[in-house]
Amino acid sequence: MTTPSAPWTYPPVEVGLVGAGPWARAMHGRMLAAGPETALSAVWARRPEAAQETAAPYGARVAASFDELLDHCEAVAFAVPPAVQAELAPRAARAGKALLLEKPLGPDLAAARRVADAVQDAGVVSQLVLTKRYHPATDAFLEAARAAEITGARSCYLHGAFLGGEFATGWRLEHGALLDLGPHLLDLLDTAVGPITAVRSTGDSRRWIELSCEHENGAVSQASLSGAVAVPHTLTRIDLFGPEQPLSYDTAGIDHEECWPILRRAFATAVRTGRPTALDATRGLYLQRLIEQAVRSNADGSAG
């Protein structure tokens, strides 16, 4: 992904937003309304008053139903819990709408497969909101990693949002960091180190969980995940080791505001050209398979 530079010459993509929670207000609505590549055409949420609050600053329509939202957009962005996304995204795909999807695709592998299958069957464009993949610093790290010989890697994604506040929501508290933070870190490790062939986990996803990953090239990586630890700021770090000096990636110094124009341009370009990026629903299903491996290995270990 690269920072947009050339003028946008296509008509803006009319995007309907599903969801009106904190993330929808803080990111999706604001990003989609900013243009010029997209326009926020409508908002639908199960709480009409929340939808009104999200839509009002941008003059977007408040849809009375999901079907009404589909009538007033050419693409749909989801900012809802995984189970809700897995229920509604296939309907949007069957209606011919491009999809901007949150991670994970669904609450489990079967639900994620239904989303990915619907996208493939309908032939619509899809894209995942893997936030950090849309930052120039991430591009630079991954480019450097491609040129490095990597023997092993250590990584972490840690924060305290599950301890309280607006992001301590039901599905996050139920499933924990593996389902919420795992897709980010697994995607980065898989891309930086090499395709992951096996994942094992230990610990409690609602408190602290450790992942051990085996990669196709023989490298081994480890990942620590928690959303329930008191840290001064979110810690997202990857260190790659090999015969040369370590290569490190740390998000502490990056400005996430730089991600949104890149994400928006990538999605709109994919919609207008019909060519999705590599971060599509197929990628989301791949990441969900890795998460399922981790879940099963932990359950098998506990049973033993």
TrEMBL record:
Keywords: Oxidoreductase. The keyword Oxidoreductase applies. It comes from the Bacteria. Residues 14-125 form the Gfo/Idh/MocA-like oxidoreductase N-terminal domain. The keyword Oxidoreductase applies. InterPro entries: Gfo/Idh/MocA-like_OxRdtase_N (IPR000683), Gfo/Idh/MocA_oxidrdct_glycsds (IPR050463), NAD(P)-bd_dom_sf (IPR036291). This is Gfo/Idh/MocA family oxidoreductase.
